[in-house]
Amino acid sequence: MNKLLTLVVPVMNEEDAIFPFLQAIDQAICVPDITLEILFIDDGSTDGTLQSLQAASAADSRVRWLKLSRNFGKEAAMTAGLDAAKGDAVVPMDVDLQDPPELINEFVRRWRDDGYHVVYGVRSSRDEDTRHKRTSANLFYRLFNRISQTPIPDNAGDYRLLDREVVEAMKRLPERNRFMKGLFAWMGYRSVGVPYARPSRQIGTSKFNFWKLWNFALDGVVGFSTLPLRVWSYVGGGIAFLAFIYIIVIVAKALIFGRDTPGYASVMSAVLFFGGMQLLSIGILGEYVARLFVEVKRRPLYLIESSSSKSQASPLQEGEPEKQTQPDGTGR
Ligand code: UDP
Ligand code: MG
């Protein structure tokens, strides 16, 4: 039976990468009884990406595009793509050919023939990354898997095939903070990994800098673990206990040896230490409160400014239309 497969491709300032991407797809994908739909999400590009997309969709009827009203970030762009995808299965992938298109053949085989709901690519090496990125990524996954209840498989990225059922489940997750890898892990389903070597970027430059990656990691940890929040009761308890012992020591010393005035160093270190601890714990509290704030506002995750189906600038469309008719009747 013929199945529709949607490739969801977020793009930001990738005018030169779009045609090579389409070409590579055509060369690489050869599976019978699969119709392709290629859905680009323009994540607030400021170069000629939109023109490239318009040209591509005019030339090729399988190509559709959505343009977000500004740069919402890759995770939001991917969410927009998953919401709009029509396929029986969906593959989110990067436009820069770092996700080798040949792998889709294997993805489809495991999905269609072996009945897996999720087939994810596992990077067999990270040789093409800088050493710095490799160590920081390793550190992050180790930390994440230690403190999160739902571990992420090692070296699994966003490149994966999702069955329609999983996409629908994904759409029902209400949170604004979309740390996709974590959400996939949380959802479960019958999953299997397929190893692949990730090549380095072919065209253009990486759109992630240190700060973006740091915030991404922070979103991941804070979104999937409450440990940073809870740890302070233990730290506080421990310190209170030590302070109590110290008080006894001071009082005893004063009683036995008489008054002992010089104490600048110890007082100062205590003040500085506690001051630092308090600021740190308030900061972590702030991270969670800030996220609560974002969730409570319930703003849409993204706004669509225009799309290939109605190329004329249409009135702004809200992110998740189906959210209004949740089966649980909450009418969010
Ligand atoms: N991207 C996006 N919005 C952003 C940043 C990136 O849509 O704010 C897209 C980008 O165009 C590319 C994909 O996400 O298709 C992966 O980005 P990149 O290759 O720069 O990331 P890296 O491979 O360096 O992690
Ligand atoms: Mg890349």
Tell me which ligands are bound: uridine-5'-diphosphate, magnesium ion
The count of helical stretches stands at 10
Report strand %.
Answer: 15-25%
In the sheet with the most strands, the strands line up as: 7-5-6-4-1-2-3-8
Q: Summarize the biggest pleated sheet.
A: 8 strands, mixed
Provide the gyration radius in Å: 25 Å
Order of helices and strands: EHEHEHEHEHEHHEHHHE
**What is the helix fraction of residues, given as a range?**
40-55%
Present the secondary structure layout:
Elements: E1 3-11, H1 18-28, E2 34-42, H2 49-59, E3 63-68, H3 74-84, E4 89-92, H4 103-112, E5 118-123, H5 131-147, E6 156-163, H6 164-172, H7 180-187, E7 191-196, H8 210-224, H9 227-257, H10 264-297, E8 304-307
Parallel strand pairs: 1-2, 1-4, 2-3, 5-7
Antiparallel strand pairs: 3-8, 4-6, 5-6
Helix pairs in contact: 5-8
Bound molecules: uridine-5'-diphosphate (UDP) and magnesium ion.
Magnesium ion (MG) binds next to loops.
